[in-house]
Specification:
Elements: E1 6-10, E2 24-25, E3 32-34, H1 42-52, E4 57-61, H2 62-70, H3 76-87, H4 89-100, H5 105-108, H6 111-127, H7 130-138, H8 147-164, H9 169-181, H10 191-194, H11 202-208, H12 211-219, H13 225-233, H14 254-269, H15 280-288, H16 297-311, E5 315-318, E6 323-328, E7 338-341, E8 344-347, E9 354-357
Antiparallel strand pairs: 1-4, 2-3, 2-4, 5-6, 5-9, 6-7, 7-8
Amino acid sequence: MSSKKLKMLPVEYLWDGLVLSDDLFNYAGKVMLLPKGETVTKAKLNKLMGFYGENKNVMVYEDTYLEIMMDAHTPQDVRQRATEQNAGYTRLHQNLGNLFQRTDYEGWLSNERMKPLIKEVASKLDHFDPATILSCINFPRPMDEGLQRHSLNVAFLNGMQAEWLHLPKEEVHTLVLAGLLHDIGKTMIPEEILNAPRRLTQEEMEIMRMHPVYSDELLKDKFDDSVRQAARHHHEKLSGMGYPDGIAGDEIELCARITAISDIYDAMVSARSYKQAKLPLNVFDMFYTEEFEGLDRSLVIQFLKNMRENYTDKQVVMSDGRRGKILYIPLNDADHPIIEQGDDIRQTDEEWYCKEILSVF
């Protein structure tokens, strides 16, 4: 048998008409079930499902696994789940969730208890293509999955921005920690407001706007000023029109300015009960046209420059159902990238557009 690595694949991920790029084996990887070049048919699928039962697995070579997972036939949530598991995001999300569900803040809210999470997030930044991590972040969740997911996403985005700015490793770790804890004050907001399946009333919004103050209070005497400033001031604006303190300009520390960008980006690519998730390309356009007033423009441009670089050459599913590749993302019109699809190279428009940026394993 070949020395190439085999990966487990649920039978349900195969489809009628799939042409195998390599041999397909039984769950133990010992018996070849279908040879390279074979076309999977409904009859063969029924036979496999009948033999194994639902949700059973076969083994395929790694290249075949990637081809199947990246194909438009594979449901987006299936691809997402595989990406998150491969990147170790799933375990990080669970670990942070376990902490956030504890109410004994004195027991876990400390630098020492957070260090393993900080190191693990930082190690992912070192070992994975940023586009892989962004695939985990960008999944259009049907509803908010909880504070821990948003906090983990902001930690990753903060760490990326810190590295793009060539900050020292210690400051990268500080920004990761700030991301993990920037919204910890939301644990003090009543659940019926935090998870309301609608837009908040003005009164509820005033209560929600207290979360940066609660974050600051929870972090007091436990973390350095940069982390506390990011938690308290990531909703402040350079114009002075933000909250909770209405500070402006240089009064807003770098850590808070970076966290503000990360916080907005994750909020925009996430679905809520009252809004659909946006594609990253749409969000880039919103940042460029300054729809989010009061951000540090130099940091925004740096963020967009690196985001565009990380999405260039990535695979997308187009509105016609076919796959394409991003060749170029205009800075001033990110919503309309130039796509290569077979022999055709052209800019997207209102009728032919990107529906999904495919996960990167």
